[in-house]
Amino acid sequence: MQEGLHRVVLGLGSNCGDKAQNLKSAREYLIGVSDGVFHSSQIYETPDAHGAPEKYFNLVMEMETLLGAETLTRLLKEYEVSAGRTSDARVLGRVPIDIDIVIFDGNIVRPKDFRQSFFQIGYQEISADRTPCEDCLVDSSVEINRVLFPV
User: Does residue 140 contact residue 146 with C-beta atoms inside 8 Å?
Assistant: First the structure.
């Protein structure tokens, strides 16, 4: 890895509108801000982590960037707003796109997300050589529906 590059693993989700297209558009945006290695899981469907009826489409991505964590987070949140993630949408529980840094330079920065099925499913797909998370909340009784196309 080039000096100054940061390895970042992101969790993406969408629960409204054209969920697959929302994720594909976000992925294309992220390709544009990445500076290196880029991996993406397939899109998959998971239940809402808090039990709401609307299911999510998710994917997990790994990329390298010269951006620091604060700058990257700011860009991600600006993208979310540009894609319709407004305070009104939040009140209604509508998430056109959510993008979170879960791992930055090997450090888990969102441990709660890291342990959830919605992240672990995609993370294990792009990280087949990594040891599975022993204390994660992956619920084997949850039916996971793979969308019929990779991104």
Answer: no
- 103 forms beta bridges with 9, 108
Give the phi and the psi of residue 2 in degrees, each rounded to 5: -65, 145
> What number of other Cβ atoms are within 10 A of residue 45's Cβ?
18
Domains recognised in the chain with CATH numbers = 6-146 (3.30.70.560)
Q: Would you give the DSSP letter of residue 96?
A: S
- CB neighbour list of residue 89: distance below 8 Å, 6 or more residues apart: 16, 95, 96
Using CA atoms, how far apart are residues 84 and 55, in angstroms rounded to an integer? 18
Could you list the pLDDT tens digit for every one of the 151 residues in the chain? Answer: 567 999 999 999 999 999 999 999 999 999 999 998 889 999 999 998 878 888 999 999 999 999 999 999 999 999 999 999 988 888 888 999 999 999 999 999 999 999 999 999 999 999 865 555 655 655 444 445 555 445 5
Of the candidates 127, 126, 131, 102, the residue with the CA atom closest to the CA atom of residue 41: 126
With tokens 């982590």, the residue in question is 49
Task: Give the whole-angstrom CA distance, residue 20 versus residue 107.
Answer: 28
